[in-house]
């Protein structure tokens, strides 16, 4: 298998990163490392060359002029890769000792094309919602893997080459989300390892991690690219909407959160302008339903191009106010009374304040179910009764 390391100004974090590769329990004869120094000036290239000269595994070090982002080095490494699997390791981070052995075994056992190993953060908080148990085989529809689109996963190289998959070098952020989402959609199965920490995501004390830097416009570029990919690969409908939740929640919503209150009026107007075509094209009732109430209301304000409503919601939250929870229909409906609830002059539909069961369950007195669940129970009861009735029917005599 191939470990691709793209490195730029990675010292001193690179030392522990490389030590974690050397400590792998997978037979070192089965590992090749392709390390790309992307124009560093801090000794990164020299550190990589010293590593290559010392270890008992094949290491190729490529030194190039700075490309401006992580996509270029990863693509260079992928073009050189010869292993059945490829793992993209960031030079700031490190692997658990058994990571590669466990991930390769998981992919071999299940024939899956992508393997996610459990991630632990060090001075950073990694995504959490996809973890909980090991899954030998799953997909993007049956799990929460859409909320972890970083590149630090095991990919079957044949899948990547068959579809000519490479990282988009025109994107300065979110390039890994585009690549990984496409891999999920094209994969013949995905595996999750939950019972062992395979990857340690390290937060740099110097604040130079690429995802923390850059203009807000780069986030809109990322959201535009991901929504376009999803739309190109899936027809309109529930499956597309399910995946559209990710760019709306992870990429767009933060631009209309607390930081929006600190933006200048010019930046606020620009953010609304950048968001409009994305919301016009992909903001549907099904996407809205999958968001929490306050998230849904913020996106509704942006979709309707009503910045005054967004400001009211954000000021409400900044004041640390909690909305009143109103139970109706004998406790089977919960509305969260955020600003302008049932204000006829403002005209926001009640449905946008209605909590879905996953959010409503936290409200004392909520009764999950209602007419739909009653009908489902009635149908199940009728189905259970069918076999007993069939026993009263005598089979026809054989011809």
TrEMBL record:
CDD domains: Glyco_tranf_GTA_type. Residues 2-161 form the Glycosyltransferase 2-like domain. GO terms for molecular function: hexosyltransferase activity. Gene3D superfamilies: Spore Coat Polysaccharide Biosynthesis Protein SpsA, Chain A (3.90.550.10). It comes from the Bacteria. Residues 220-313 form the TarS/TarP linker domain. Keywords: Transferase. InterPro entries: Glyco_trans_2-like, Nucleotide-diphossugar_trans, TarS/TarP_linker. This is Glycosyltransferase family 2 protein. It comes from Streptomyces aquilus.
């Amino acid at each position: 298998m191939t470990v691709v390391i793209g490195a730029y100004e990675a010292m001193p974090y690179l030392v522990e990163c490389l030590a974690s590769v050397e400590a792998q329990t997978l037979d070192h004869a089965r590992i090749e490392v392709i390390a790309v120094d992307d124009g560093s000036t801090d000794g990164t290239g020299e550190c990589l060359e010293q590593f290559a000269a010392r270890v008992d595994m094949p290491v190729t070090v490529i030194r190039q002029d700075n490309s401006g982002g992580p996509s270029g080095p990863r693509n260079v490494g992928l073009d050189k890769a010869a292993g059945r699997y490829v793992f993209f390791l960031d030079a700031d981070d490190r692997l658990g000792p058994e990571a590669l052995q466990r991930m390769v075994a998981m992919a071999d056992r299940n024939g899956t094309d992508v393997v996610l190993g459990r991630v632990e953060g060090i001075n950073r908080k990694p995504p959490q919602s996809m973890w909980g148990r090991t899954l030998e085989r799953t997909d993007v529809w049956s799990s929460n893997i859409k909320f972890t689109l970083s590149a630090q996963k095991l990919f079957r190289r044949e899948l990547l080459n068959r579809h000519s998959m490479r990282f988009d070098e025109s994107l300065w952020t979110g390039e890994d989300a585009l690549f990984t989402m496409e891999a999920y959609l094209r994969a013949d199965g995905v595996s999750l390892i939950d019972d062992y920490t395979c990857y340690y995501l390290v937060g740099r004390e110097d604040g130079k991690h690429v995802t923390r830097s850059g203009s807000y416009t780069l986030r809109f570029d990322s959201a535009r690219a991901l929504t376009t990919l999803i739309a190109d690969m899936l027809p309109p409908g529930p499956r597309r909407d399910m995946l559209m939740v990710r760019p709306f929640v992870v990429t767009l919503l933060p631009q209309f959160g607390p930081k929006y209150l600190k933006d200048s009026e010019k930046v606020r107007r620009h953010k609304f302008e950048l968001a409009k075509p994305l919301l016009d094209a992909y903001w549907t009732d099904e996407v809205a339903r999958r968001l929490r109430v306050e998230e849904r209301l913020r996106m509704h304000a942006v979709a309707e191009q009503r910045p005054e409503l967004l400001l009211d919601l954000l000021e409400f939250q900044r004041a640390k106010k909690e909305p009143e929870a109103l139970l109706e229909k004998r406790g089977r409906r919960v509305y969260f009374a955020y600003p302008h609830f049932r204000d006829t002059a403002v005209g926001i539909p009640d449905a946008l304040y209605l909590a879905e069961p996953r959010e409503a369950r936290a409200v004392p007195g909520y009764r999950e179910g209602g007419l739909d669940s009653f009908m489902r129970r009635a149908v199940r009861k009728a189905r259970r009764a069918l076999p007993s009735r069939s026993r009263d029917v005598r089979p026809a005599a054989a011809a």
